[in-house]
Amino acid sequence: MGENIYLFMIIALAVLAITDLIVGVSNDAVNFLNSAIGSKAISFKTIMLVASVGIAFGAVSSSGMMEVARKGIFNPSEFVFAEIMIVFMAVMITDILLLDFFNTLGMPTSTTVSIVFELLGAAVAISLVKIYSGDGNFTHLSNYINTDKATEIIIGILLSVVIAFTIGAIVQFLTRVLISFKFNDKPKWVGAIFGGMAITAIIYFILIKGLKGTSIISPEASMFIGENPELFLLGNFILWFTLSWLATTFMKWNIYTIIIILGTFALAMAFAGNDLVNFIGVPLAAYESFLSWSDSGQLASEYNMKGLAVAVQTPTYLLLASGVIMVVTLWFSSKAKNVVKTSVDLSRQDEGDERFEPNYLSRQIVKFSIKASDNLNGLIPVSLQNRINTQFVKPTSYAQKAKAKDQPAFDLIRASVNLMVASVLISLATSLKLPLSTTYVTFMVAMGTSLADRAWGSESAVYRVAGVLNVIGGWFFTAIVAFVAAAIIAYIIHLGGIWAISALLIFAFVLIGKNYLSHTKKLKETKEEEILERAESSSIQGVIEESAKNIANVVKRANKIYSNSINGLAKQDLNSLHKNKKQGAKLANEIEDLRNHTFYFIKNLEEAHIGASNFYINAMGHLTDISQSLEYIGKVSHKHVNNNHKKLKYNQIKELKQIDIKLAEILDNTYHAFEERSFEKIGNILNNKQELYDLVSQKISLQVERTRSEESSPKNTTLYFTILLETKDLMTATMNLLELYYKEHDADVAPATLD
């Protein structure tokens, strides 16, 4: 291969590096944003500004090249330039595809683990090619691969997951027992001690993980910290305890908010300073290899890459440019917010919308944990149990729970512990030169603290455990897929050269573009399709006024779902019916969520407005009946076409369209009545309901005659009767809902709402 192909590869790697920075930040934002966002200690804009400054500072003060990209996984002296370039190209293509896949799912994964296993996979593939062509055997692989380092990394991953979860749970439990949920009522010295410990841990983390090896901290200072860590920590604790006490006593600052701001900055800085090389380390190593080979005058297939073993400092302008890309991505990436949401939802203090469905393993873990907890409680004196339990009593405010999306997912204490423990564990591992993933540590600490904080109650435990298992399973999936995919891509490039590289690059960018468009479309649909809002009113008139928008939303979507079912059957459009079925299920889930809110709604009510609860419960019942009929129609329609049963006959389709048109007219009028709050129009709709009932009954009679005389398909008959009967149920539920609103609405009464 000539020099042109390597120049092309360098340009391609530069583009891949920029792309990798974007998808990498979207994934790793969860590391430093989840505690601040979850606690809502400061505004989202302030969180982003603090994180941006941290990223920019960390990028510029980055400790240089990631040695693992150059010599940590493979022995560079065993490879020539042509082979090394194949390895680097395979790694970068695999990396952007893998990270983008996880970002699209909204699942946090480790950029460190992905890059390590991609390097391992690609290097193994090329090593096997060399061994095979040289008539060697498989045992020679250890000459090419740094197996000790690879084993160390794998063990480090497993240990970091268990240790982070355990330490997070223990520290949070002890903190809560000592400080409780009423931390604002504690004496100032309690907060000062906690602040002194937390800020000391975070500062130590900044110095050890963020600034070690940079020009900002001198070698003498670094050596002193390394040789006298106990003295350094003690001095820091005294300093920060004093400053914390002065700040809270005289300046009335909230020490926990300060900890969260400082911790967010520290983790963002450490991320940029250390994980930045996960994205640009490989392209830079490739660029230096290219320059070294170009100056040598040797053939690419002969030039030995032992020069990669020498450490090289990364140019500052490249670090600065990378930092700018990372900051811009942080502000504008909707996928980053999606990944953060997964972590925050799984550690949320109160029940709410659960994203993950429980599975067999999560149920068994919860059952075992309950039994173990019961057995353990039997060993602890009842008086001690009662004292501990009083520290875990949460301030109860059902009115706040009703507006759960506006409330913090957890309090300032837990957010502070998350940041403090993650900082300690990461800096400790760094000082001991142990490999770990910052994503794994920060995520598992957050899960451990939420468990210790009793956030995983009987209402939510199976969902949360299932979520954690999904994320952890995704991490192992990352390692396996990264290894296999990089190995396959490396071998494809080895066989196909520049044509294979071009095809793989086109495939990668088309796939990323497709994922981006799909994600954008989904976000747009979510915004357009207004989510049903929970009622906060305390009177019947208040609920009527407030829920009118919800009813209009449901009716509009019901009209669309019903019409799409009929049109999909008419055209035998399986894709349309599949989407329609999902829309029906989505509407049913949203209404189910409103029903789950009934407890909090009733808790809000005063004695004088108790009738509002009956109204709300009845309205929810009618909405549930509507959604169940729509969901069932969508499901049977999709199933019929999906199973390749006979098409409905022309007359059957024609009759269903007649019903659809009449139903659409009623639902459209209903939509406008609720959208415009013109509740007096409901009377006209109710007066015309018999017309549709008669139409449906007439079609049922016609189908009975057809079945007796000419119908030959049992499946068709079953489907047709099912749709007609469910349409009747749909109409009954809709009319019952309209009658409820028409009967209870009183224009002369001003709606009462919660203060």
From TrEMBL:
A Gene Ontology cellular-component term: membrane
UniProt cross-references to Pfam families, sorted A to Z: PHO4
Major localisation: membrane
Keyword vocabulary terms for this entry: Membrane, Phosphate transport, Transmembrane, Transmembrane helix, Transport
GO molecular function (one): phosphate transmembrane transporter activity
Subcellular location: Membrane
Membrane topology, from the record: Multi-pass membrane protein
Protein name: Phosphate transporter
Gene source species: Maribacter caenipelagi
